[in-house]
Amino acid sequence: MRLILGGFTLKKVIVFMLLLFTIVCLSCTNQGDRLKNNELKEYTFLIYMNGSDLETEHGAGTSDLYEMMKAGTTDNINVVIETGGTKNWQNHYIDASQNQRWLVKKNNLEKLQDLGTKNMGVSSTLKDFLVWGVSNYPAQKHVLILWNHGGGSISGFGYDERHFYDTLLLVELEQALTDAMATTGVKLEMIGFDACLMATIETADVVAPFANYLVASTELEPAIGWEYSAFLKKASEEKLDGEMLGKEIADSFYKDTKKYGLNDTVTLSVIDTSRIGILKKSFENFIMKADEDIYDASVFNQISNTVSRAEYYGGQSPSEGYSNMIDLGDLASKLSDDYAQDKNDIVNNVNDAVVYQIKGKARGKSTGISVYFPYYNKENIEYELPVYGTIDFSEPYNDFLTRYTEVARNDTSEIEFASENINKEGNSYKANVKSSEMENVSQVRTVLGKKIDENKILLYGGSPSANYNKGEINTEFDNKWLSINGNMVYSYVTRVEDDYITYSLPAVLNDEYVNIKVAWYADDGEDGYYKILGAWHGVIPESKIVRKEIIEVKQGDVIKPIFKEYNIDKKEAKSIEGKAFILLDDPEIIIKELDEEDLVLGFCIDDYSLNQCYSNFIPIEE
Q1: Which is it for strands 188-194 and 139-147: parallel, antiparallel or unpaired?
Q2: How many CB atoms lie within 10 A of CB 15?
Q3: How do beta strands 500-509 and 558-567 pair?
Q4: N or C: which terminus of the chain has fewer CB atoms within 10 Å of its end residue's CB?
């Protein structure tokens, strides 16, 4: 007997159901393909906004949020944020007591989640945000932007004001990216750092398995940060790959900093992470050769000399603190001919990896990627090297740094003068170091001071005017010195290049301890010209993170210079505050004709282990 169902046999029903199932499956497959190829948005931007003091004190996060809202989520892009890490948000949207997630819309923020309080300096918080963002906002390409301070390869990214100023170290960043990718299976198109000092080879090596491009700065970034509305609108309107998007970020950033007069020292790099492996290999080839003879004094001095002349980023003076981030391409370009092949390989591979960069006038030697090298602050080596080892960047380089810093720390002897007295003939001053010390001299500066009493000299800082050749130091002094609006200040030379010189002037600016950054440029007339670039707080001692904001120095500001007081008997110098003055006019650097009494001049010498010594001082007017 056959079962009849509305005129259909059971067999016909089964055939019909199979046919229907096939059609549905094909329809689903075609729909999935359309969603994958056509309906997915072009980009999802995942912005990890750790507000910290940038928001609490300056509202910098809020400013960038309003920039994002000018573009907002569109038919082509998603813009999603996690906020946290600050004591106070300067807007009516965000609750500082907890982490929150937001969808950025045109002229508005839509709250998606309250998360409770979470530490933005641990890997799990970032991992959770990535997994949630990629899962809930699928797109053809994903971009992670980390917003806050940066400290380079040692200190990593950001600090959370609500969780003991905890920072996200590179090893923690790597853990977050590893865990997120294991869950989502999605490789990011780009990781960007709207933060200082993060365009390092170590950072690039960490992110390479997880992102096609890295966009970051080798140098300090002004607090205004990236110009979000410009590149978000461009990403919404045009089809951009990671390299093209990176170029838009860099160009809009430079244009914005130029508008505010903050572009002289900025940098931003677009790095193709697929090229980092070969760059790392060429760097290791050089390091393994240098490591063979690092205990040889001549090799140690040669390497140190190269490092001391390379472009340097972040803190660059005793009052600023030191970041120990060196431009990799510029370092390689200054290597001796003993490493000719390695030199060419590294320079070429840096150029291949950095597919685009912008750089200001006072960062002309920047090649777009830096490397950690602990040259300037021996006292922090015991802390920094173990942290660096956790990154697992390069075993040969770790071994080299261990031996290099061992030599530097064990050398505690100062350069000795043949005679500590200076010979003076007219405006010419000369001194000599012992013949046995000739090859150990790293840097020589002319030092000006004012004699306070028989044992103390108030130092006005150093000038790069001193020449050194085969043991002889000489300078011509024309009785002029750098000042701000005619007021004497202490000047520390941070970089000397053919076409520019940069200085750091420690001071108290409107009751805040800062370093006023100044540049001299050679390209405006016979004597060139000076420019005040702004004031900067320096490296934060506790976290080693660098402060992002550059402060404008303007008319009406109160400046109290910080000088050095040199004790002749103890051969020691300590900081001392000078007399405050008010900028009654727009600030400018004036080369002042000196008319003070009791002025003295001497020389200061650094060796390659950064031991420092002063000559005797001689009166300028006898």
Answers
A1: parallel
A2: 12
A3: antiparallel
A4: N
The class that CATH gives domain 39-274 is alpha beta
Report the alpha-carbon distance of residue 81 to residue 316 in Å, rounded: 34
Closest CA to 142 of 3, 44, 221: 44
First to last CA, the chain: 132
Could you tell me the pLDDT band of residue 462, with boundaries at 50, 70 and 90?
Answer: very high
Looking at the predicted structure, is the pLDDT value of residue 417 above 50? yes
- ∠ CA 266-270-274 to the nearest 5 degrees? 145
pLDDT exceeds 60 at position 178:
yes
Would you say 481 and 500 are in contact if contact means Cβ atoms under 8 Å apart?
A: no
Domain boundaries defined on the chain: 1-38, 39-274, 278-352+365-410
pTM of the model: 0.92
For residues 330 and 365, the answer to whether their CB atoms sit within 8 Å is yes
- Mean local confidence (pLDDT), 371-395: 93
The per-residue pLDDT for range 490-536, each reduced to its tens digit, is: 999 999 998 999 999 999 999 999 999 999 999 766 789 999 999 99
Helix, strand, coil shares of the chain, percent, nearest 5, are 35, 35, 30
- Are 140 and 42 contacting, i.e. CB atoms less than 8 angstroms apart? yes
Q: How many angstroms from the chain centroid is the CA of residue 218? A: 4
Cα–Cα distance measured from residue 219 to residue 150, given in angstroms and rounded to the nearest whole number? 10
* Cα(448)–Cα(506) distance, integer angstroms: 16
DSSP 551-567: BPP-TT-EEEEEEEEEE
Rounded Cα–Cα distance for residues 277 and 319 (Å)? 36
Question: What's the pLDDT tens digit per position in 73-113?
Answer: 999 999 999 999 999 999 999 999 999 999 999 999 999 99
Cα–Cα distance, 141 to 230 (Å, whole number): 19
Decide: 601 and 448 in contact? Cβ < 8 Å.
yes
* Position 38 confidence tier, pLDDT thresholds 50, 70, 90: low
Q: How far apart are CA 240 and CA 219, in angstroms?
A: 26
Sign of the dihedral through C-alpha 331, 254, 482, 492: negative
The residues, any chain, with a CB within 8 Å of residue 96's CB and separated by 6 or more, are 51, 86, 87, 88, 89, 162
Nearest of 259, 192, 222, 225 to residue 65 by alpha carbon: 225
Task: State residue 73 phi and psi, 5-degree precision.
Answer: -70, 135
CB 435 within 8 A of CB 607: no
Residue 581 has what pLDDT?
98
Rounded to 10°, the helix 297-309/395-410 angle is: 100
Q: Strands 99-105, 77-84: parallel, antiparallel or unpaired by DSSP?
A: antiparallel
Output the pLDDT for position 237.
Answer: 97
DSSP run (H or E) holding 612 = strand 612-614
Among 15-24, 134-143, 462-471, name the one with the lowest average pLDDT. Answer: 15-24
> In this structure, what is the dihedral angle of CA atoms 477, 610, 315, 299, given to the nearest 10 degrees?
110
622 pLDDT above the threshold of 70: no
**Pseudo-torsion of CA 336, 337, 339, 340, nearest 10°?**
130
Gap between the Cα atoms of 294 and 300, Å rounded: 5
Quote the longest CA-to-CA distance of the chain.
132
Helix (H, G, I), strand (E, B) or coil at 351: helix
DSSP H or E run through 398: helix 395-410
